[in-house]
From TrEMBL:
Coiled coil: none annotated. HAMAP family: Glu_tRNA_synth_type1. ATP binds at K256. This is Glutamate--tRNA ligase. Residues 336-473 form the Aminoacyl-tRNA synthetase class I anticodon-binding domain. Monomer. Its EC number is 6.1.1.17. PANTHER family: GLUTAMATE--TRNA LIGASE (PTHR43311), GLUTAMATE--TRNA LIGASE, MITOCHONDRIAL-RELATED (PTHR43311:SF2). It catalyses: tRNA(Glu) + L-glutamate + ATP = L-glutamyl-tRNA(Glu) + AMP + diphosphate.
Length: 485
């Protein structure tokens, strides 16, 4: 155990590219552990079996390690309270679910998805918030047994008090009171036997002896469910701290639909992990102007969890650029700068694999920058003129880009082969030849109609960079469509 008994964790879901918001929450927990002589734990919450993949899990581990974070226990390093992957803990949750049923704190729900959807539609039509109506609570023990014996599918839901409110003290928001009437009868165990986030989260935190739970403020409304579970089991609850969401400059929630949010995107563009952590860490400390450039050790020294702001943490890309520039100029020796540059260019084998692709397409080495420079560029300089020579109209080009963008989001794997298959499927969906679909994508990726092989290039650029370049291309082409009207 830690010298202070403090144990905190970060528990990301491996359902997509690791988000900078994950790094933000992870950094807080990491600094909190360092400040208190405690331990920082990494747990993978993969209860969403339809979206969780081992590829994304590895990306989470790689991204957080790139950020400079180290964990005492986790799926890759083990520890005394493992396994640290929820899918590997599946059988551990069933006895706790049965305990809740035996104590009368939970019940079996046999409602079909169709019945639940109809219920929600009626509630919305009547201006009521959607929530379970308690139908299955009224079944007798004999009726429940009969349904189970008949093989009817069921989930396990938790019971919620009908009167009063859940009152607790949050490390950021202070005293909070949430009426029980606003809390839904949460599903705890799904029909496939897997726990939901809420059930697994509470049990895992208890078994792993987590003392403080620091997470995003979007989970504040879920605290009553979690506190109720702790009370149902007779366990001490941890101290909760709900951090303000990261937001864009316009105060909207930071999301990949508006701006690049993947950690891998910032790594690919050449941001230093020290600069990114410096930038995120400034949300948790109080400093005077001129003291902004801070290492992880300096952030930990100035970290003050008792003086946190409830105002949104603004992800100001200009400030990040400014900090990153200062790190490059002021914190690296020339030798370190050269080493970092080579390391960055070689990330995901972009440089070596890009050179291999270029070898058969050049007559002299001096052509390399123009042909393959887009693999290392932060901006390929797209303008309406970039798309001017295409045979497709701006409207057709926009349809291609938007369709590719949407379908790429659903891809579980990111390889040359999977990109090839997906783009051929897009061509079929649009009723076009592949040779019609690919030219706009060449331009979106490289800024040129002459480039390296498209599928290989997209694989080397990575999912997050491709997503952002398609987004920029869509904006440029959309302006051309608007100009035509």
């Amino acid at each position: 155990m830690s010298t202070s008994g403090v144990r905190v964790r970060i528990a990301p879901s491996p359902t997509g590219e690791p988000h900078v918001g994950t790094a933000y929450i992870a950094l807080f927990n990491y600094l909190f552990a360092k400040k208190h002589g405690g331990e920082f734990i990494l747990r993978i919450e993969d209860t969403d079996a339809t979206r969780s993949t081992r590829e994304f899990e590895q990306k989470v581990l790689d991204a957080l390690r790139w950020c400079g974070l180290e964990w005492k226990e986790g799926p890759d390093v083990g520890g005394p309270y493992g396994p640290y992957r929820q899918s590997d803990r599946k059988d551990m949750y069933q006895p706790f679910a049965q305990e809740l049923l035996d104590k009368g704190h939970a019940f079996r729900c046999f409602c079909t998805p169709e019945r639940l959807e109809k219920m929600r539609e009626e509630q919305r039509a009547n201006g009521k918030p959607p929530g379970y109506d308690g139908l299955c609570l009224r079944y007798s023990a004999e009726e429940v047994t009969a349904k189970m014996d008949a093989g009817e599918a069921s989930v396990i839901r938790m019971k919620i008090p009908t009167e009063g409110a859940c009152e607790f003290n949050d490390g950021v928001y202070g005293d909070v009171s949430i009426p029980w009437s606003s809390v839904d009868m949460q599903v705890l165990i799904k029909a496939d036997g897997m726990p939901t986030y809420h059930m697994a989260n509470v049990i895992d935190d208890h078994l792993m002896k987590i003392t403080h739970v620091a997470r995003g403020e979007e989970w504040l409304a879920s605290v009553p469910k979690h506190i109720l579970l702790y009370r149902y089991f007779g366990w001490d609850e941890p101290k909760f701290m709900h951090l303000s969401l990261m937001r864009n400059a316009d105060k909207s929630k930071l999301s990949k639909r508006k701006n690049p949010t993947s950690i891998s995107y910032y790594s690919a563009l050449g941001y230093l992990p020290e600069a990114l952590m410096n930038f995120l860490g400034l949300f948790f400390i109080q400093i005077a102007e001129g003291e902004e450039l801070l290492s992880m050790e300096e952030l930990a020294d100035k970290f003050d969890p008792d003086n946190l702001s409830k105002a949104g943490a603004i992800f100001d890309i200009q400030k990040l650029d400014w900090l990153n520039g200062r790190w490059l100029r002021e914190k690296l020796t020339p030798e370190e700068f050269i080493a970092r540059t080579i390391e960055w260019a070689s990330e995901n084998s972009r440089l070596t694999e890009g050179l291999k692709l270029a070898q058969s397409r050049i007559s002299k080495l001096g052509e390399l920058p123009n042909l393959g420079g887009f693999l290392l560029s932060s901006d390929v300089g797209l303008t309406p003129a970039s798309f001017g020579g295409l045979k497709t109209s701006p409207a057709e080009t926009l349809e291609i880009i938007n369709t590719v963008q949407a379908d790429f989001e659903k891809m579980p794997e990111w390889t040359t082969e999977s990109i090839d298959q997906e783009l051929r499927a897009v061509a079929d969906k649009l009723g076009k030849k592949l040779r019609v679909v690919t030219p706009p994508l060449f331009i979106a990726m490289s800024g040129s109609q002459r480039s390296l092989p498209l599928f290989d290039s997209m694989a080397l650029l990575g999912r997050s960079v491709v997503r952002q370049r398609l987004k920029i291309a869509a904006t440029v082409v959309a302006s051309m469509v608007g100009a035509e009207k």
